[in-house]
Amino acid sequence: MAAFSYTTIFFLVSSTLAHTAFSAFFKPRDINKWPKPPCKMYYPLDPSYTSECPDVISYVCATNGHTYKNECFFCVDQW
């Protein structure tokens, strides 16, 4: 009789942990709530200005399927 209760407790605990662990994978994502990068700080002061982006790796994934090295490269590509 004691083995039945241990088995039941094991399955209850494991199903609770599995639900907690895997619920983040299937959560719907709303891309409208994601923060927009501050592109105004990368805009050139005049048309002949060439932007020099820093060599910092902080990947930015765009909704068009491209991945940029950082938000400066993303903003320069949007010009």
UniProtKB/TrEMBL annotation:
Ranges for domain Kazal-like: 33-79
Keywords: Protease inhibitor, Serine protease inhibitor, Signal
InterPro entries, alphabetized: Kazal_dom, Kazal_dom_sf
Domain of life: Eukaryota
A Pfam family recorded for this sequence: Kazal_1
GO molecular function: serine-type endopeptidase inhibitor activity
PROSITE patterns in UniProt: KAZAL_1, KAZAL_2
PANTHER family with a match to the protein in the record: SERINE PROTEASE INHIBITOR (PTHR21312), SERINE PROTEASE INHIBITOR KAZAL-TYPE 13 (PTHR21312:SF36)
Name of the protein: Serine protease inhibitor Kazal-type 13
Organism: Mustela putorius furo (European domestic ferret)
